[in-house]
Amino acid sequence: MEQTKRFPKDFLFGGATAANQIEGAYKEGGKGLSIADMMPVGKDRFTIMRRDDFNWDLSEADYFFPNRKAIDFYHTYREDIKLFAEMGFKCYRMSIAWSRIFPRGDEKEPNKEGMEFYHNVFDECLKHGIEPVVTISHYEIPLAIVKEYGGWKNKVVIDLFCKFADVVLTNFSDKVKYWMTFNEINSAYHFPPIGQGISFLEAKEDMTVLMQSFHNQFVASSYAVKRAHEIRKDSQVGCMVLYAPMYSYDSHPENQLAILKLNQEFNQFCADVQVTGKYPYYTKAMFKQMGIDKLDITDEELNVLKENTVDYVGFSYYMSTTKSVTNKELELITGNILAGAKNPFLEVSEWGWEIDPIGLRIACNQLYDRYEKPLFIAENGLGAADILTEDLSVEDDYRIDYLKKHLCAIYEAIEDGVKIMGYTAWGCIDLVSASTGEMSKRYGMIYVDLNDQLEGTGKRYKKKSFNWYSQVIKTAGENILN
Questions:
Q1: Considering only Cβ atoms within 10 Å of each terminal Cβ, which end of the chain, N or C, has fewer?
Q2: Closest listed residue to residue 462, CA positions, set 398, 400, 388
């Protein structure tokens, strides 16, 4: 008799968001400005931020800044968490806005109103039986840290972050067991402003700035791991990377070698340091290729890295990428800050992101083979232009199809022997897109009635995927696996 297929009993199904993309209330509760509050709306958002003269001083007269209002989770969190509970969430991956705890980032004491807000959010989650999975820093650096200290290239920011992390861990660890340190830390390779607070010009002129910033973040992350374990013995702290399996366009040895090197640089380096506690063997060659002589690294910092490695590997997966160094005439495709050759075997989303469920199974196997640490799929989802019907619903069968195929790939990875802790679908509720600042690029299973200018009622409506996902969780995947 064939055995019924189910996800493991302790598998953490849920959804994921980020503070800067949902909270809004950018002037309320003592919050300070963050870099996310200075990011404009529109498909040219990243183009603007790539300009050599970009300096975080864009004018309200010239630009609209959607993260400042977002979907107003700051005031609607009870209603939203209740909807998450109705979907059956076992966990909710969220983040803490650094600038809500320390408005400038360098105050002596934390902001009491900010602390109270997160206490209330965690209490609301726990009331509904939802385990918070909390990212300490998710593309949200206090603006003052960037403007006055230069972002993560400055070692002073290590101390500022450690103070922030210490406050957060000390005050919330009785309510939070699962943590992640930096969201998609390796994304800075392609977009350093939002992850490190340094400009494209700085990184372009001297890669030492980028890599020094990474090192400083590694040290800060290790400190957070150390404190979390000191404060609560069963704390689980993970790193979090943007992972995109890389395919060679053909079997040409030069392309195969290029893929090996690109994998080391983008997919592996940041996780290698945080998981193993040391710089990998290829670091010297990679730095030489980047024109880097040396970084400011102390023996004490190396010891901190060695003694405080992460407990699990969190990662986001949206797409794979295909590369060729031998053929420059191939059609290119972009998505999730990555660019590569168009893969003729894959379909693309409305925003041009290639859809590759098997790539997620590959990603799980590659990561577990390399690290043998539990994995947590912290982000995965489909951005689409949903239409709210007259009966106030959304027929998002395309999202259901996307999520089903990716969840089946995860199950197959588990069958392969990979240990996977959980899965949190990205944008479980519609939010401001990180890449474009749009609301019209919707990921959620809950529709939020706001347009790209954040005009609308703000009311929440269940999409078709809402009830579908609730059945997935209720049946531990039986409804899609059998």
A1: N
A2: 388
How big is the chain, counted in residues? Answer: 482
List residues with catalytic annotation.
184, 379
| Predicted confidence (pLDDT) per residue in 282-304, tens digit | 999 999 999 999 999 999 999 99
> How far is the C-alpha of 455 from the C-alpha of 482, rounded, in Å?
43
Q: Between the CA of residue 213 and those of 106, 188, 430, what are the distances in Å?
A: 18, 9, 32
Handedness of CA 19, 64, 388, 78 (dihedral sign): positive
Full strand arrangement of the beta sheet holding 246-248: 246-248, 321-323, 338-341, 332-335
Q: Tens digit of pLDDT for each residue in 364-377?
A: 999 999 999 999 99
CA atoms within 13 A on the CB side of 386: 34
Q: Is 335 helix (H, G, I), strand (E, B) or coil?
A: strand
CA-nearest of 4, 91, 2, 18 to 473 is 91
Q: Which residue has the tokens 């899609």?
A: 480
What's the pLDDT band for 328 if we cut at 50, 70, 90?
confident
Residue 335: its pLDDT value, please? 76
Nearest to 87 by CA among 55, 115, 129, 50: 129
Closest CA to 279 of 331, 198, 219, 230: 219
Q: Is residue 439's pLDDT more than 90?
A: yes
Give phi and psi for 42, each to the nearest 5.
Answer: 120, 160
Spell 131-167 as b/e; 16+ CB within 10 A means b.
bbbbbbbbbbbbbbbbbebbbbbbbebbebbbbbbbb
User: Within 13 Å and on the Cβ side, how many CA atoms surround 452?
Assistant: 16
Judged against a pLDDT cut of 90, whether residue 193 lies above it is answered with yes
Residue 85 contacts residue 130 (beta carbons within 8 Å)? yes
Helix (H, G, I), strand (E, B) or coil at 34: strand
